[in-house]
């Protein structure tokens, strides 16, 4: 973060999310056009999996399995939750 506050977490989100709503101290929001665009890193990361990101993947279970271990995945809506059903990577 450029304002001197410590960066605690990366929050990756789809194009439909409003970064102003997601913003919080110590969290840097980053848009992701696909699950492949979510890198591993030296900080914990959370991916808000929305319907648009889930539907953009031809093989969602494989794309979720291929995410770096340090990325926690949270379904952002009921549609994403339904599409990811059965995946051990989605926490909520």
Provide a descriptive summary of the structure in words.
- The N and C termini lie far apart (28 Å).
- 28% of the residues are buried.
- It is built from four helices and four strands, in the order E-H-E-E-H-H-E-H.
- The protein has helices at 19-22, 51-56, 60-65, 78-83, and strands spanning 9-13, 27-31, 45-49, 71-75.
- The chain has a four-stranded parallel β-sheet.
- With 92 residues, it is α/β, with parallel strands linked by helices.
Structure summary:
Helices cover 24% and strands 22% of the residues. It is built from four helices and four strands. It has a four-stranded parallel β-sheet with strand order 2-1-3-4.
Short key terms for the protein model shown above:
92 residues; alpha/beta; 4 strands; 22% strand; globular
């Amino acid at each position: 973060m450029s304002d001197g506050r410590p960066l605690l977490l990366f929050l990756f989100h789809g194009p439909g999310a409003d970064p102003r709503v997601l913003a919080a101290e110590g969290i840097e929001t980053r848009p992701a056009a696909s699950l492949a665009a979510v890198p591993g890193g030296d900080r914990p990361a959370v991916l808000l999996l929305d319907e648009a990101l889930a539907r953009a993947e031809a093989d969602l279970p494989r794309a979720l399995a291929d995410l770096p271990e340090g990325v926690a995945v949270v379904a952002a809506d009921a549609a994403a939750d339904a599409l990811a059903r059965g995946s051990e990577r989605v926490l909520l």
